[in-house]
Amino acid sequence: MSGSTASEDAAADEQSHGDARRGSDPATSVADRRNEGPATPGTDPERASLPPGPDGVPVLGTLPRFVRDPFAFYDRLFAYGDVVSYDFGIWNNVTLFHPADVERVLVDDADRFRKSHVQRRSGVDFLENGLLLTEGEEWREQRTQLQPLFYREKIEAFAETMVEEARLLVDSWDDGEVIDLQSAYSTLAMRVLGRTLFGVDVHDGEGYEVIRRAAASVQRRADAGSVTAFLPDWVPTPANRRFARDTAAFREYVDRLVRERRGSDFADADDLLTLLVGLGEGDALSDDAVRDQLMTFLFAGHETTSLALSYATHALARRPGIADDLHAEAAAAGDLDAAAVRSLDVTDRVVSETLRRYPPAYVLFREPIVDVIVGGYRIPAGTNVSLPIWRLHRDPRWWDDPETFDPSRWIEDDPDRPEYAYLPFGGGPRHCIGMRFASLELRATLATVFGEAEFEALADGEPSFEAAATLQPSEPLRVRVSKR
Ligand code: HEM
User: Fold this and answer.
1) Nearest-CA residue for atom 13 of ligand 1
2) Which end of the chain, N or C, is more open, meaning fewer C-beta atoms within 10 Å of its C-beta?
3) Which of 304, 357, 437, 443 for a ligand 1 pocket mutation test, highest count of atoms within 8 Å of Cβ?
4) Neighbour tally for 197: CB within 10 Å
5) Cα distance between the two ends of the chain
6) Percent of the chain with pLDDT over 70
7) Residue 223: pLDDT over 70
8) Rounded CA gap, 32 and 112, in Å?
9) Which residues does 35 contact at the CB level (< 8 Å), separation at least 6?
10) Which residues contact residue 324 at a Cβ distance below 8 angstroms, ignoring those fewer than 6 apart?
11) Within-domain flag for 1
């Protein structure tokens, strides 16, 4: 692995989403080929027609069908073509199924789109000034300030902490114990984030509980299968009330962390919390911005990572053959530092396949700020555009046997597969800033855990899912553990 410099990292981050992109040549991107000709975005939107799509019932449009089963709804939309439109009452939606169109939205035409009102709404009041939801110059400044914390050298220095926490987790399990994977890995992900980015032990009983409850409330409130997801915040549904209570407690907890760091001698620390508090002191960041930023990183970095670890372990518990390869690789690797983690090929393929088959961030939302043309169709400004990562990762046009969990598909790159058929970390300027962090944590944790333990599934078959803010399993993912 090359030891790339910080400036190389910055350049790579400017124009790509690094490891998440595969086999691309930007000069001949599929997006360019697909949208070439007179109907280039923004040149003549009026002449292009609106995309096809299903009709809905009066007033609510297709919303009732969506709420009944969001995943089946996306599957049905797929039959209408690559660009499909439908209404949820007053909201106009378009879903894009072609990787070239997704690339156009996220990369080539990124400055014509912003985060959609759907996404903004789920974070209003507690993430709105953070990196995930800010826009324009404000976002650019934040990203520039924070990017250096995520350069490769910085992230690789966290490998030891990640391995240590994974070991502590395995040590906490008894031989033969049945464990709930999400709960176990959520604790782990929180501890790792706390130690590496915030320099605090968020696993003190109170802090952890506060964060866990707030995360669960966000999931429930964003659950697309419930009516709450489509109602204003002030409607006192149980989910909205719980959201208000739990996020207020979370806000108080984070405010206390910031106060404590301000009152301490932190000259030597160089973690995220210190950087933010330092910027806050110089008036570069308001108190609200510091708090929103911390909350953003706690939420964006914790739930996604623990879900990926849970799905990977659950998938392997049902596939002893693949698990054996992982055990063997982990045993041969010996002490795991960043260099050793980088050389874990089987683990790397398991991670890639997990993020393909069970992408924690399963759909992205954008909204064009002007009328645009995508895939030959007009998309009016303000339309909610969804990019169904979940569906793109299982499209039989790009993936053989897409429903099968098969890490060996990653042994060789498929030169015919469009780059944006796989985008677990998003793409373009707003790709996941924590991608390297997550990728290292997933590999370091799985190698450590599978080096020391084996897992047995309690039920056969694929898990079923809920369309919450992230891809949640409908039932707890439980396995029986035995120590090696
Ligand atoms: C498996 C784990 C993860 C997955 C699948 C994931 C996925 C994503 C995706 C798809 C986006 C783009 C969202 C969009 O375009 O609307 C994103 C953005 C983001 N992620 Fe992650 N993420 C993961 C882990 C992390 C971690 C560990 C952190 C922090 C340490 C993090 C922090 C962020 C932030 C702050 C953004 C917003 C970036 C911006 O808009 O500039 N993520 N993530």
Assistant:
1) 426
2) N
3) 304
4) 22
5) 31
6) 81
7) no
8) 16
9) 41, 100, 104, 373, 374, 375, 376
10) none
11) no
For residue 303, the CA-to-ligand 1 centroid distance in Å is: 10
Residue 480 backbone dihedrals phi, psi, to 5 degrees: -100, 135
The answer to the question of residue 426 being in a domain is yes
pLDDT tens readout for residues 249-299 = 888 888 888 888 777 766 566 788 887 877 666 656 677 777 788 888 888
336/325 Cα distance (integer angstroms):
17
Question: Which stretches of 120-271 are assigned E, i.e. beta strand?
Answer: 178-180
**H/E element, 63:** helix 63-68
pLDDT band at residue 203 using 50, 70 and 90 as cut-offs:
low
Lowest mean pLDDT among 224-238, 307-321, 368-382: 224-238
Q: Is 159 in the pocket of ligand 1 (CB under 6 A)?
A: no
| Residue 414, in any domain of the structure | yes
**What letter does residue 50 receive in the DSSP assignment?**
P
CATH number at residue 338: 1.10.630.10
Domain total in the chain:
1
- 230: pLDDT confidence band, cut at 50, 70 and 90? low
Mutation choice for ligand 1 from 432, 437, 439, 443, CB with most ligand atoms inside 8 A: 432
Please indicate whether residue 143, judged by its CB atom, sits closer than 6 Å to ligand 1.
yes
Give the CA radius of gyration of the chain.
22
Q: What is the pLDDT of residues 396-413, one digit of tens each?
A: 999 999 999 999 999 999
What is the domain range of residue 138? 6-483
Stretch (H or E) spanning 4: none
Answer yes or no: is the C-beta of 299 below 6 A from any ligand 1 atom. no
